[in-house]
Amino acid sequence: MAALAVSGCVTVPRGPAPGPPAPAGRTSEQADRNVRPQIVQAPVREALDAALPPVPEPRAPAARPSPAPRPHPRAARPAPARPRPAPHPAVPHVPHVPHVPSPAPLIGDDVCDLGRSLGGWRPDSPEARICEGTYGK
User: Is the pTM for the entire model greater than 0.85?
Assistant: First the structure.
């Protein structure tokens, strides 16, 4: 049995896109007609009549009834007093907060001093070499 290897570009013909098959018997004109939006517009007067509530027909003006008799004025009552607000304590109650010591101050002016104050660098670390070479510390 012999085997042959070929290198290079190989073109594969592309098949039809996957998906449902198009229904048979339709013409492009029929499909185009189904896709276009169908807008139906009623005459303006009918559209307005359908959209607005019905207007009552005008009637003959009726005789106005006589105004109702006014009640006798009563003695003016004073306005009700406003409710008093609840008294507030003069000094609000503040719960006791225990004293928390502040952390130890950091010693030094540069990164090398900061590293030493936080535990130091490993002797062979890049940090130790940088501090030694740059700052001589």
Answer: no
